[in-house]
Structures
1.
Amino acid sequence: MTKCMNLRSLSKTISQIENDRPKSLKILSELYAKKRGVPILGITGLPGAGKSTLVDHLIHHLRGQSKTVGVIAIDPSSPFSGGALLGDRIRMQRHATDEGVFIRSLGSRGAHGGLSQATHDAALCLDAYGFDQIIIESVGVGQTELDIMSLATTTVVVLVPEAGDAVQTLKAGLMEIADIFVVNKADRPGAEQMKIMLEAMVAMDSKMGTWLAPVLLTKADKGSGIAELWKAVLQHGEILKKDPAHAKHQEALRRAQFLEMCGEAVKQHLKEKLISDKKLKAILEKVAKEEVNPYEALKKILPSFVRRGRGR
Amino acid sequence: MTKCMNLRSLSKTISQIENDRPKSLKILSELYAKKRGVPILGITGLPGAGKSTLVDHLIHHLRGQSKTVGVIAIDPSSPFSGGALLGDRIRMQRHATDEGVFIRSLGSRGAHGGLSQATHDAALCLDAYGFDQIIIESVGVGQTELDIMSLATTTVVVLVPEAGDAVQTLKAGLMEIADIFVVNKADRPGAEQMKIMLEAMVAMDSKMGTWLAPVLLTKADKGSGIAELWKAVLQHGEILKKDPAHAKHQEALRRAQFLEMCGEAVKQHLKEKLISDKKLKAILEKVAKEEVNPYEALKKILPSFVRRGRGR
């Protein structure tokens, strides 16, 4: 981090964008101009896998190297999100007074479809504000939550030794997004077998010729295996830099993000119109009361919104 | 079910709507006209709670009463979705040749934000085609997956006796959506304590004055507790019919669904324009290559899409 930053103003900026995105385009544009392309580490896995403890120790490890860390937590069961057991919350407190660490939780329900966007924006804020490393912790189930991992430069999938859990996890689509596997709570029975099974799966299903996802054993509650994990993250980052497929992938990601951002903007605009415009509001209320067929109503409304827009 | 239906044509209709919604408005409108308001039972809970086994036995129970059942599975780990262990799949086969049962899995990744809409549409299809009962099975984590449960008339949250699991589940937002709790795998230690704990929580946090969510014990793998569960579902349905708050809630739901549907329609329209229109496509490519600031590009594009639309 090059300059002394103001964490309170950072927090305010993220909230402002989250609460009123349409009015925050100017801020987002300025942040984008300051963006440096900080690597994003994604940590995902089923509830109870120990993701937050792992993140806690990763922060500690990075702080030991004087690196500043910005964390975005999207796991509803994460202690970062404030929903956890007292023990967890106290454990996390050790970073509370550290100016080199910033933790933000996202993912309150109700922000329909807006969670991916909010995470993207928050990551942009952390990047522009000058953190050395960004970490996104997200629960490894759910369409939105899995999609968010596409923001990560490197994605770590955290499992526990119980075999059933692993099977569930892999079924849930985690296999394809893993750059690194971590078998956490490795002092439990079955850790070694799990490692062997995962390594066999990785060997069969190598998503990239240049990188075979390693399988690491950690005991996050004791801080064991953290240094090795961080080493693997750095190695993966180095490989990516030399991989032309990665640059193509980043381009495709930016394309998809822009399409999504534009689409969301018009969607929000129409939703507001439907509530504020008298005529449209009347249709909405008829639909709510089942007095008109919603699909017929849509057919009526749509043309006035989509006729224009043929270029600029 | 009043008439003999053609399951193959139902399957085709759902696929057609899923693949090209903008062109399916006519079909949706016709389906809506046939809609009868069939009750929807939602089954949710963490992966591994035994949701699918429970659904399997519920189907069996309802078939015993000659009721026809349509199931939508949105759990990526559900055997209905095809990702399960062989044993599960074979177990489910017992309904494969039954014309009174239709099972559809949804939730392939990639359909950004479209999962709620797809579930809504599929439920409409099942309703219009004449099933007596609709069941939606959804994994109990993830923003989209939890939101989908708002479609359900009655929501059953399935837990297992392990306390950690319960705590995680309740933190993840399942507490507020539960109309009925099921402690499944009730032959495991801790089932009774879990029941007592849940009952205490329900008593403290009654979301509706007229209904206190009951806590039931089941052993779904043995079919035990299923009849009691179904009885509770029916009781909850009866209570709702007399509850004026429920009618209000349904109205609010239809309002939100219509807003979402209109919003999604214009969003898709804009996304297609951005790819098909030459000028817009050029901007998109510049954004992808980081040659222009995406927020500046959005500011440029937006006005031509949102200026109109002041009523009809």
2.
Amino acid sequence: MYDEILPNLIKKNETKAVLLIADGIGGTTVNGHTELEAARTPNLDELAKQSSLGLHYPVGYGITPGSGPGHLGLFGYDPIRYQIGRGVLEALGSGMEVVRGDLAVRGNFATIENGKITDRRAGRIPTEKCAELVQKIRENLPDVEGIEFDIKAARDYRFAVVFHDERLKDAVEDADPQQTGLPPRPAAARDEDSELSAKIINVFIEKVTEILKNERPANTCLIRGAANSPDIVLFEKRYGMKPQGIAVYPMYKGLARLVGMETPSGLETLEQEIERLQNSYDDFDFHFFHFKYTDSAGEDGDFDRKVAMIEKFDTAIPDILALKPDVLVITGDHSTPSSLRLHSWHPVPLLINGEFAFSDSAARFTEREAAEKGIIGHIPATAIMMYILANCGRLEKFGA
Amino acid sequence: MYDEILPNLIKKNETKAVLLIADGIGGTTVNGHTELEAARTPNLDELAKQSSLGLHYPVGYGITPGSGPGHLGLFGYDPIRYQIGRGVLEALGSGMEVVRGDLAVRGNFATIENGKITDRRAGRIPTEKCAELVQKIRENLPDVEGIEFDIKAARDYRFAVVFHDERLKDAVEDADPQQTGLPPRPAAARDEDSELSAKIINVFIEKVTEILKNERPANTCLIRGAANSPDIVLFEKRYGMKPQGIAVYPMYKGLARLVGMETPSGLETLEQEIERLQNSYDDFDFHFFHFKYTDSAGEDGDFDRKVAMIEKFDTAIPDILALKPDVLVITGDHSTPSSLRLHSWHPVPLLINGEFAFSDSAARFTEREAAEKGIIGHIPATAIMMYILANCGRLEKFGA
């Protein structure tokens, strides 16, 4: 946001901010109440009384965000301008590194017989078999025409590949005939700059098919969703704050790394995430902290479990407040109403706590309180980083 | 705002609008209350009950505006698009005219010895000495290579110069070595169009140094912040309303003149400002009325004095209402919370009164009432002029 003037406004100081994300925390009413309204949240209630509340819309009015755009917006990058391609998301979700200049693609193991694709998913081979085949490829294919790559199994028959070469551009059609009974369709470049990418993908498929020639049913692969890492200014350069991303799931760690955050590995529980925050608090200026299970419960359509996960999230608040961050922001990357069983477009409740944040009359961290009594109003997600910087005293005055 | 369609929408009638600005009036909570909440404001309260309330953000989310951007936004000009350079602000703040085509610069008197700058502020000479040196320059330098200029002393060792020539463009590096012990650094153009400006500035410095050769410690000058007046469509042309700006301080009169408002001189008190409004009410369609002291008290960190200044401001309301303006808008150019002692990013309360303004449930002119009960919601400052025009019946229907 305000990309044109932001670089001239950023200044540094010793403040620290925590951005606490409960994935999919917003909801919509079921019998008159949302999950947040139904939950017992004494810590969030107490904090809400001393904070500014409002609602944010992650991408835009009515737009349901995926996790990628949802988080990019929270990090202050316009998710419509900076789109994260499918290949990059698959790679991040598989726990791979994707950095500027990389080309990431999604792969399907598939079956070819007599020159025709007979199964686009290779009989939906199990994840273990997929991992075995990926290992075989890794051992037999050190590079593609001199270009290094990483490959990693995802779920079932799917895998991801990241090619490391700045010359590889992503305007490439899928190497996928889309239906069975047709011959393989080679990758084709949509522009001149992407011809090398198409060639490398086609050589990769050819080599993989050779390596797997004695396998059944997975004896070839399809490649889709070629995508470069978005060309963004990394978080620390953009904001002057050294950031870390504390998360359990690979997707969120990957999104954090995409903007240049350090991401500790090996965290599996909320307790471990809190412990990490405590132990590394002094080493960073900005802590993005991700809690997943509010979203999972919403996607399962389980109102009561989402309530329980919100109550679990609530228990983390005192330990985080004990660190006395200069600014604490609590929100979600999108809403996931359990009635919908999906991510949704509903605005997400937002709380900003800090010495100079207006203490409004909202007495609970709920959608309704935020809308009725919140001083912040409705803002785009990309405004949140601006408010974090402002409340941290990290923005110069604009103009004299 | 809506620059593309606005010219086709403007129509004229006999309505009159008053834009009443209490500088820095917004605040944030201290022990649960803002200065506006703590103040006794019977007149504002009564008016709020019959008006529309809301909040505006002067430049953008989280951005703290200087007075220049703050006022440009109120006048309906996008403050990010129309940036007012340092030289122009210094000139306006010194009470000088700056019009389209001018090039304004800030000057420092400095000390040069044996070809090196030994003091960038000439021992911080007092304002009186500065004025004396400026007078000497004025007497001895009628023009610079035929280009006319005005020069005026500012505070201490600082002065401002406005060169009047449309050929002078402002892409010029500061003529300032930034540190002592170095030789003077001539102004350098950053593009071809600005080469004449660099030359004129360098000749000006050379002549000044000659004129001051027997002075100590101020025997040369540095020139910084070269800036053209922003290329804007003047207020009356843009809105079809003949405007005046009633203000005590040079900066606000200067900002008003920048957009083409007439600005009476010699006003020193709120009472004199009101008297001027009364006496000239029929001569203009639009009256910008500036009250300074809410901001001054906020910048001094004095909660109680800011409360007192708000109460003083409140006493002006009946006299202004007695003029029966068709539209009265009350707001600030930004917030200045006394807890922060600075301008801030907090949204500013806004009141719109007029025959067709929605009378919402807000019963006081405070940040909280505006957020909780205001019909206007949160809007950018540039929207305020649109609402003034609309409530004045000065905008045609858009489309049939």
3.
Amino acid sequence: MKIIKGSITAPQGFLAQGVEAAIKKEDKKDLTIIYSNHKCAAAGVFTTNKVRAACIDINRSHLEDGRAQAIVANSGNANACTGQQGWKDTLSMARLTAEYLNISPDDVLVASTGVIGHAMPMRRVEKGIRDAAANLSEHGGENAARAIMTTDLVSKEIAVEIEIGGRPVRIGAIAKGSGMIHPNMATMLCFITTDADISSPCLEEMLRYSCDRSFNMISVDRDTSTNDMVLLLANGLAGNRQIKNCQGEDYQVFREALDFVSISLAKMVTRDGEGATRLVEVEVINAENYDAARTIARSITSSNLTKAAIFGEDANWGRILAAAGYSGADFDPQQVDIYLGSEKMAENGMGLIFNEDLARQELQKDPVVIKVDMKSGPFKATAWGCDLSYEYVRINAAYRT
Amino acid sequence: MKIIKGSITAPQGFLAQGVEAAIKKEDKKDLTIIYSNHKCAAAGVFTTNKVRAACIDINRSHLEDGRAQAIVANSGNANACTGQQGWKDTLSMARLTAEYLNISPDDVLVASTGVIGHAMPMRRVEKGIRDAAANLSEHGGENAARAIMTTDLVSKEIAVEIEIGGRPVRIGAIAKGSGMIHPNMATMLCFITTDADISSPCLEEMLRYSCDRSFNMISVDRDTSTNDMVLLLANGLAGNRQIKNCQGEDYQVFREALDFVSISLAKMVTRDGEGATRLVEVEVINAENYDAARTIARSITSSNLTKAAIFGEDANWGRILAAAGYSGADFDPQQVDIYLGSEKMAENGMGLIFNEDLARQELQKDPVVIKVDMKSGPFKATAWGCDLSYEYVRINAAYRT
């Protein structure tokens, strides 16, 4: 596998564009279209929040046949908690995009991110859709990535190339996450394209697996958004023999590349977490089962006390152990060793005498790497989070208007 | 029921003292003894963290017979993650206290709060126990409350008097919570005394009920401690007819008073939460069942985004609804109304046009009162939290040493 230039337009047959539609107050891009000139096998994973934007339910229904051809996404307005009108506006976004692209509305997926509870400015949105559709380009990936940003400080893109049955296959992706210009709730969007030929059932299974090990393992503030989604479009133009056996070797090769793409973007989102000064990687090893490893890793990356201690460069291993303890996973605390980088801080659940200067140096690194050895089985899991800084409070205390 | 002066020494037969044993670095009280001159029916509720201090398990065993006569508590050292030595030291604290008070070690309960993973300075602890035991007094409640404080800014005490079968019965209590001088993890301790005559099974049942509606409904930072405990001692000196029927009228009267005491202290602990500038009260009403009401109320008080918005006086009802949505409770978002004080912000899951100035005034109040009307049943629950401020980050980023 090699990392290549570009993002969602790196795979064959994909065009994209991001434009200014004046949905945001500032003069910034805020409307994206991603389009494949061939119909794609498509899969999506969506927020589990009971309070969901209309686009979540509409996308689920559009994905029932496992096919799609375009994505339209806007930033600056989440179109959530907007009732019947919000539902109608989301359907209009799909219909308008379909008209300009001359495809079926059922083959358009819709994503929105931004302030909650405000009506969509549909006249501007329509103008934006027309503008983006008219300027779709093989070089539009970067604009597309910019036009889905909200309080993100950097845009997030990646593309890789692998070989399947002797044919080069590409995967491209963009994501946004962890804040809004009108802070409301952290919304995470990720769009992945590939020219691989894959059956819909295989696509869905591997996207779910990959998300569970990437986007579902990151946390900035434990607040699950109303609009989170990851979409994956596969148009088959690479001409590989179709991947339709979820146990086969081709499936493995592709999924490993997909995992790499998902984890890379998940880490970019977390590193760009609101107010974050460092990425934190927590690896739980030798656990009795995978669920326990996962639960403990996530609990540690989500602990406010641990996050604040990391911001303060305080090697406070007691908070790490306590966060494991209240995670809900069953384990024996008196078996647990804790490492900060290469420094061992605790053994068998008890503190060791460690070098405070070396520990502080580990806490100044980016990422900070914490390893928790359960010494009770063969399973492991990794989670990513960030530190909790004054800046997080400032960003989220800011008034909406 | 009337509120009376004093705290744990207000009920008949209880003596207490808090002294300086030099366990803390500063010249501050750090060792407390609470003693009843009659053996008590006793009950306790303890942290659910898998990583527990030895005192938690030792108290459970000492409470097996439902009886106790004294509590010894220290601040400045949590004696958690200290292995075999920590276990021995906890047993020594019970034994030494028992010797000086001439009672059985099994009738002594032990509590510790402070830094984790450090050995107890047992010579100092013994001197403190001797000193406190020699100076037990009816007026020692305030010193006792001070000697369990860590980063608490104020001490927390309350006492009430009710009448049961024509006899005055008193309940007194002290608590500490929400920070440490060596910040490590928020430890919550609460000791409650009463001269009521109550059977052990009734005492345990009502303490569990009361804690579920008070201490288990507060959150400062979602981090569950290794040392949390609530202890209740009832020595029977009020001479009321014994409460031994958990359905009876006397039980109800006493439990209501106990609930008042528990909720009052729980609110004091939350208001004194690390860095908190305001108490936040979230009432979920008209829910389909009690568990849903409770889960939603707790999810809202625990949301970092909601807490930061309150600190910033931002009437960001979307975050409140989103926190309800990811709580795990099942409900229909399109039924939900949200009030901030007397201002209705959202109806049927959609935002209303509201007066931003009035909303901001509600957010400047202490407590901030949020009401969530589920409009789907007869159940309700109240949870308490606090805002998330720069000061929280500062306190918890500070270096241990």
4.
Amino acid sequence: MATTDKTSTRDRLLDAAGELFYREGVSIGVEALCRTAGVSKRSMYQLFTSKDEVLAASLARRLPAYEAQLVPDALEAATPRERILHVFERLEKAAAESAYQGCPYLAALVELKDPEHPASVVAGGAKAGMKEFLRARAEEGGARDPDLLARQLMVVFDGASARAGARIETLDGLTVTTATTLLDAAGMN
Amino acid sequence: MATTDKTSTRDRLLDAAGELFYREGVSIGVEALCRTAGVSKRSMYQLFTSKDEVLAASLARRLPAYEAQLVPDALEAATPRERILHVFERLEKAAAESAYQGCPYLAALVELKDPEHPASVVAGGAKAGMKEFLRARAEEGGARDPDLLARQLMVVFDGASARAGARIETLDGLTVTTATTLLDAAGMN
């Protein structure tokens, strides 16, 4: 072969996997995955021990971009309250896109139904990271019970993203309004 | 054959399907489904045109029991506020069971990723029925914007059930506390 670039094969496989699992669900088979990625099964199994590992790695690969979209660095100067509300503004913007299918991490957890699956571990970590971001901002902003507020906000985030992804809700300000009510009730500036 | 009871074959198939799809996900194949139900594929295809129709019918069959669990008739004498909070108390009770995997209707919608799938139509109807129950109670209780409040409560219900089902949240009063805050903010008695 003229070129054998393992890094780019890995990237191509994970990008295709991320998109395909998001669009079609985690039950997509190895055949369809490799066909879409333009990667042979042999190449896939040289890089990963199983489809489960591909799924886990594709979710991990997507995480920095996912977090940057919801929590931009540029907002570090904003108040804790603004930073929390910004997450919901970004969620609503993302949910308005025609390809939106909800949060990929919650979807993976719902579909896999197995907290010990390697991809569930990645997804659970993504969710825990986001909750910790909200909890830390709630604490900075003087919320009475930062952990409770963060749990409430995660419930709103996940419920809204699942419902919007399933096309049974059009957010249109719903999560920003709801988060504002919860921030106010928590006594947060 | 000694007995050919189509009704009981149908019931057995749908009960097994409902349990299996809930526990393992909607991607379970026809082989596993028929094996678990103790029904031949031939019998299945005499009753239903496709696995999709079995899934839709199993969700529809489960709906009356699901609704009765969350919204008992016996509570008709309670206030609208009590009836709303009772839904969340029941959700928390259900979510504490070890076999809990979240709301079966939301899970089907998340997994199928197709609002036009016959099972998505059933699931969407279940969700719309619950939202209408909450909206009607919100209106009776004098909420400022009954539709907004019902949408907020559905987001809390679905977010909490998905997170508890995925084992990334232990509700422990979380949804009752959150619903109370939202009812108060909506000016509901």
